[in-house]
């Protein structure tokens, strides 16, 4: 039987990355962070002065950057044209621009092709996390998970990650998340959506370990 492919989708702040990495590490699978790929191509656009508010300019530039993803769940790296951009792609400039760049159809075609070939080459199996993995990128995945959490919990988690602690800062984070989710869910091409055959896991009241246990059990059942 071919290697197991796990798709984990959901909005920001649901614990997708921590969960996906931990599931991959526990089960000995490779790991692919597709959000990091969209962030990397966005970093390249900003670095080269492309007007990210202009879809035609983004489309014209999209074929140039070479985005490479490391698939080791313990130290996933991401490079663009040989530069390690793992840190800068998490900054506010990239976070503010990534939804616009990732809504451009040519960008999605290029990155989707890359994601499919990485998954096909993962002979030991792979966990792929994103927004459209179960619906569009890997519709034949062995297991599809859709992670959710209440807005309060998501804003609190994301604030903790980026070191925003005051009530006003948490409110800002909550507004950022809501803006990005609205953009990601409403775009024309492969929006954020739950696949019909995905298992929904509400992480609001679960610890990371509990979510990982739940998904690892589901993977074992599908093997
Ligand atoms: O997961 P992360 O928050 O790093 O994703 C950053 C952005 O990349 C998302 O807000 C979304 O605009 C885009 N994205 C996407 N499709 C994916 C993964 C991420 O459009 N499969």
Automatic annotation (TrEMBL):
<dbReference type="Pfam" id="PF02224">
    <property type="entry name" value="Cytidylate_kin"/>
</dbReference>
<keyword id="KW-0418">Kinase</keyword>
<dbReference type="GO" id="GO:0016301">
    <property type="term" value="F:kinase activity"/>
</dbReference>
<comment type="similarity">
    <text>Belongs to the cytidylate kinase family. Type 1 subfamily.</text>
</comment>
<dbReference type="InterPro" id="IPR003136">
    <property type="entry name" value="Cytidylate_kin"/>
</dbReference>
<keyword id="KW-0808">Transferase</keyword>
<dbReference type="InterPro" id="IPR027417">
    <property type="entry name" value="P-loop_NTPase"/>
</dbReference>
<keyword id="KW-0963">Cytoplasm</keyword>
<dbReference type="InterPro" id="IPR011994">
    <property type="entry name" value="Cytidylate_kinase_dom"/>
</dbReference>
<protein>
    <recommendedName>
        <fullName>Cytidylate kinase</fullName>
        <ecNumber>2.7.4.25</ecNumber>
    </recommendedName>
</protein>
<feature type="domain" description="Cytidylate kinase">
    <location>
        <begin position="6"/>
        <end position="220"/>
    </location>
</feature>
<keyword id="KW-0067">ATP-binding</keyword>
<keyword id="KW-0547">Nucleotide-binding</keyword>
<feature type="binding site">
    <location>
        <begin position="10"/>
        <end position="18"/>
    </location>
    <ligand>
        <name>ATP</name>
    </ligand>
</feature>
């Amino acid at each position: 039987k071919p290697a197991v492919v796990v798709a984990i989708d959901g909005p920001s702040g649901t614990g997708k990355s921590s969960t996906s990495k931990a599931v991959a590490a526990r089960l000995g699978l490779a790991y692919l962070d597709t959000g990091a790929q969209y962030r990397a191509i966005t970093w390249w656009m900003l670095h080269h002065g492309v007007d990210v508010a202009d879809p035609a300019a983004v489309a014209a530039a999209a074929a140039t950057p070479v985005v490479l993803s490391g698939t080791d769940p313990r130290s996933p790296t991401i490079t663009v044209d040989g530069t390690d951009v793992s840190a800068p792609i998490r900054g506010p400039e990239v976070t503010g621009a990534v939804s616009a760049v990732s809504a451009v159809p040519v960008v999605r075609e290029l990155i989707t092709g890359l994601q499919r070939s990485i998954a096909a080459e993962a002979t030991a199996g792979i966990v792929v996390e994103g927004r459209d993995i179960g619906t569009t990128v890997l519709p034949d995945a062995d297991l599809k998970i859709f992670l959710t959490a209440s807005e309060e919990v998501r804003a609190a988690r994301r604030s903790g990650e980026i070191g925003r602690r005051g009530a006003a800062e948490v409110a800002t984070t909550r507004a950022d998340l809501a803006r990005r989710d609205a953009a990601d869910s409403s775009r024309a091409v492969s929006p954020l959506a739950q696949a019909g055959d995905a298992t929904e896991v509400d992480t609001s009241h679960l610890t990371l370990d509990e979510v990982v246990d739940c998904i690892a059990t589901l993977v074992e059942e599908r093997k």
